[in-house]
Specification:
Blueprint (H helix, E strand, L loop, with lengths): L26 H6 L10 E8 L5 E4 L2 E7 L4 H10 L4 E7 L16 H12 L4 E6 L12 E3 L2 E3 H18 L3 E4 L6 H11 L6 E8 L6 H7 L19 H13 L3 E5 L5 H10 L4 E5 L1 H12 L5 H15 L3 E4 L2 H10 L1
Parallel strand pairs: 1-3, 1-4, 1-12, 4-5, 5-8, 8-9, 9-10, 10-11, 11-12
Antiparallel strand pairs: 2-3, 6-7
Length: 337
C-alpha cells in the first residue's frame, strides 16, 4: 500500500531568506558570478633543454614533458605562444658537470643557447631562467660544497655570474632557486652594475624541501649525490618562516616572489597574498603533475577536470602566476570551454 505524504503548507516566514542555488541553476548564471577566472595568461610553461640536434626526448616520469635541443625550441616556442601562454621557464642539462657548475655561466651554455633560440623565433615570449647550480654540479647541490657543507656566501658569487650570463643572452627574468641567504640582493647588485637594471628577478622565496620534486630530478638530472637539501630548503611544517623569507626577498629587490610547491601550500600562498602586494607565483611542481597524469591515464580521475580544478584552486588561493607542466593542455582546454 502506497502512503502519500502531503506537503506541509509553507508560510513566507518559513521559506529560506536566501536561496544560494538560484545563481547555480544554469551555466550562464554560474559563469556570471564566478569569482576566480583562470586563463592561459596566468601560466608559465617550464622547458628542459639539452645539448644535441633534433632532440625531443620524453621524460619517463613526466609523460608528455620533454627535454629539447635548442634547434627544436623555435617551433615549440611558437606553439606555446599561439596558446596564449606568455612565458617559459628554462632549465638546462649541461654537457659536463664540475664542482662549481661552470657551464651555468658560459656564453655558449645550454640555457644561453636556448634563450637566443626562443627570442629569435618568438621575441614577445617572456623568458625566465632558473638560476641555480644543482643541474650543473657533479655533487648535485645548489651551492659550492666545502667539507660536506654548502658555502652560502661563496655560492653568491657564482649565482651573480649565472644571472649576468643569462641576462646578456636575453633573459627577461632570472629566478634564483637555490635558497641561499642574500641571493636576491647579490643578483640585483650584479645586474644593476652590469647594465641590466631592466632584468627582473623572480625569487624562489618560499621553496620547501618537498617530496614532490622526484620527477624533476630525473628530468634535470639534479639529484644530490650525498645528503639532502633540508639545510637550505624550507621545512614543510613552517608557514610563518615563509613570510619572513618572502619579506627578505622583497627587501633585497625581488620583483616577484614564489611559493613552491603549490597544492600542499595553498595556505602559504594565501598568507603571502594577504600580506604582500607584489606579484605572487606558485609552482605546480613535477610530482603534482605526474600524480594527476598517472591517475588520469589509469582512468581513476578525469585529468582535464582535475587539472583545471587544481589550477583554479591555486589562483583562488592568491597566485597571480602559475608555473605548471600542464600549461599547454590547460590552455587548450580553456579555449574549448
Amino acid at each position: 500500500m502506497t502512503t502519500w505524504f502531503r506537503r506541509k503548507d509553507v508560510h513566507a516566514s518559513d521559506a529560506p531568506v536566501r536561496r544560494m542555488r538560484r545563481l547555480r541553476r544554469t551555466p550562464a548564471l554560474r559563469g556570471l558570478v564566478r569569482e576566480t577566472s583562470l586563463s592561459a595568461r596566468d601560466f608559465v610553461y617550464p622547458l628542459f633543454v639539452m645539448h644535441g640536434r633534433g632532440a625531443q626526448q620524453e621524460i619517463p616520469s613526466m609523460p608528455e614533458v620533454y627535454q629539447w635541443s635548442p634547434d627544436r625550441l623555435a617551433a615549440e616556442a611558437e606553439s606555446i605562444a599561439k596558446l596564449g601562454i606568455p612565458a617559459v621557464l628554462l632549465f638546462g642539462l649541461p654537457a659536463h658537470k664540475d664542482e662549481i657548475g661552470s657551464e651555468n655561466f658560459a656564453d655558449d651554455g645550454i640555457v644561453q643557447q636556448a634563450i637566443r633560440a626562443i627570442k629569435g623565433a618568438v621575441p614577445e615570449l617572456a623568458v625566465i631562467t632558473d638560476v641555480c647550480m644543482c643541474e650543473y654540479t657533479n655533487h648535485g647541490h645548489c651551492g659550492i660544497v666545502r667539507d660536506g657543507a654548502i658555502e652560502n656566501d661563496e655560492t653568491l658569487e657564482v649565482l651573480q655570474r649565472v644571472a649576468l650570463s643569462h641576462a646578456a643572452a636575453g633573459a627577461d627574468v632570472v629566478a634564483p632557486s637555490g635558497m641561499m641567504d642574500g641571493q636576491v640582493r647579490a643578483i640585483r647588485a650584479a645586474l644593476d652594475a652590469g647594465g641590466f637594471s631592466g632584468t627582473a628577478i623572480l625569487g624562489y622565496s618560499a621553496k620547501y624541501a618537498s617530496a614532490l620534486y622526484g620527477p624533476f630530478r630525473e628530468a634535470a638530472d639534479s639529484a644530490p649525490s650525498f645528503g639532502d637539501r633540508r639545510a637550505y630548503q624550507m621545512d614543510a611544517a613552517n608557514a610563518r618562516e615563509a613570510m619572513r623569507e618572502v619579506e627578505n626577498d622583497i627587501a633585497e629587490g625581488a620583483d616577484m616572489v614564489m611559493i613552491k610547491p603549490a597544492l600542499p601550500y595553498l595556505d602559504v600562498i594565501r598568507q603571502a597574498r594577504d600580506r604582500f602586494d607584489l606579484p605572487i607565483a606558485a609552482y605546480n611542481v613535477s610530482g603534482e603533475y605526474s600524480m594527476v597524469k598517472a591517475a588520469g591515464r589509469n582512468g581513476w580521475i578525469d585529468e582535464r577536470a582535475v587539472t583545471l580544478e587544481a589550477l583554479t584552486g591555486i589562483k583562488r588561493a592568491g597566485a597571480d602566476i602559475i608555473i605548471t607542466y600542464h600549461a599547454k593542455d590547460a590552455a587548450a582546454w580553456l579555449q574549448q570551454r
